[in-house]
Amino acid sequence: MKKFSVLAAAVCIALAAAVLPPVYADAPEEENPPVTIVFSHDMHSHLEKFPKIRSVIRQEKAKNKATFVLDGGDFSMGTPYQTIFKEEAAELRMMGAVGYDATTLGNHEFDYRSAGLSQMLLSARRSGDRLPQLVAANIDWERTLEDKDLAADGKRLQSAMEELDAGEYAVIERGGVKIAVFGIFGKEADDYAPESGTYFRDPIEAAADVVDDIQSHEKVDLVVCLSHSGTNAENPEESEDELLAENVDGIDLIISGHTHTELQEPIMIGDTVIASVGQYNDNIGTLTFTWQEGEYRLDQYGLTPLDKAIKNDAAAEKKVDAFKSLVDKEYFSSFGYSWDQVLAENTVEFTGIDDFAAAQGEDPLGSLIADSYRYGVQQAEGDRYEEVDVAIVPAGVVRGTIPQGKVTAGDAFNILSLGTGKDGIAGYPLVSVYLTGAELKMAAEIDISISELMQPARLYFSGLRYTYNPNRLILSRAYDIVLDRSEGKTEELENNRLYRVVADLYSAQMLGMVNSLSYGLLSVEPKDRDGRPIENFEDYIVYDRAGRELKEWYALASYIDDFDGGRVPDAYSAPEGRKLLEDSRNPIDLLKKPNKFFWMITAAAALALSLLALFAILAVKLVRRLTRGGRRLRRKDMIFRR
Fold first, then answer.
1. SS3 for 247?
2. Mean pLDDT (whole number) for 90-94
3. pTM to 2 decimals?
């Protein structure tokens, strides 16, 4: 029966593809016509917006035949559509169906690792659907294939990309205009894909090489970079795409993905335009270049919200619905849910995802998710349950919020939609590790001090409570850190005692990297119950009594599903005191309860001041000595003259 349902869904998808009318037009006779580029990035599997995207594309193509449609990567991972990523390649096939010309890889295309990405690309190719051209200029194939641990999967990925005719760049011609499009995978994107199994060349060096190659071998009107690197307004020296534009001549346009930036006006670096449209298909971007003084220059730029004002294209909507039915059959049913199944009613106004973790402090959305981890483990382990002392949720894994009104299983998945487990099934599983009391205190300090520099590192806890003062010395801002037991009782942390901690697989891996990334300054080393450092976190995945991985989204869904009266508790309508702000500049408050970092920083500052004082004393003595020496010379000179 299941085989029949899958076949029927596949037929529906094929029929939907067949009824999608073409969106391309014949080339005009006009010389140097205007060029329109419709663009997106960081779509994260939000296929529900593709019917609106198709409407915008058709509208732009009706106005200008020289219209190109481009995407800057991270087209997958973010909604339940990603659960059929490997088998159905829904995202790539929908992009082709609505008229995308080219896309590149983002870090989340590697969430199923290079083997999963390879399978997706082959599934897309063998579907027979029209697909966008895939471009990726800085994969270091030589280094990847020379690594014995990566070679097998690397070869599969290389072969899959060859079957898809993917290359470093592509030349696309339409309406009498030729553009060259190449793809770049940024440094931070590489850091955010620890399981990619792929090496990448330096983005700037690779971009310079490919632009030189294009200029040497192609005659094109525009050179466009699809960059999954991003911009950084707060730290321009870390703004990868601005650095790319500054260091590589010959790029006319950079579609800047990865950082989810929404630029209402483009960034101009010399003659290079940097464009960003935001995330999750909230908007679609449009640029127009016109022929001015012998070259193409930017004439118009704008973002169009994909809201109710944009009508859905019926054919695209039918194709999306077919994929949605397949997700229900192939994924949600195995968890006992359906996509639109209502879990609870919600009257609480939770923080929107655009504002979540923007400011330091407690947030009820983070608290609820952390509570769900502890609940999920208890339900999964049953009579084998060992108390979870603390659950940790980094802001970076939260991709959505709890809506008001009906909360569905699909909403729960969207909130925690990233990754895959050892089982290869969509969704990060929860893992169980142990940290010492001293390391839990360090985790609180990472949240308060380090997350000001790295917003995704903001941490939300269940089972931990502390006070913080942002005016204190960095790494010494969190204090009164205690375990939060039931019925409001607290318990002092013992520095050398091991405590059971639960987090998702990705977060546990990143937590384990804190020590190396901070060169040993911040020591947080997850351990097993016997205190041995963990080498492979997949060995510590939490399983239910049926032997299935406990997915973090499922823990959240089952927690919401079990709320009394089918309603989200009002307790989550406001902070509960898990993080208490003491915004004081009183010297007593600034100096009380110092930790080791306070003394380290104080000692370093004292040493620096002592050295400065010593240098000042030596400088004064040297000046005096030189002055006295100068006076003696002048006296001798006067005597000599006499």
1. helix
2. 98
3. 0.82
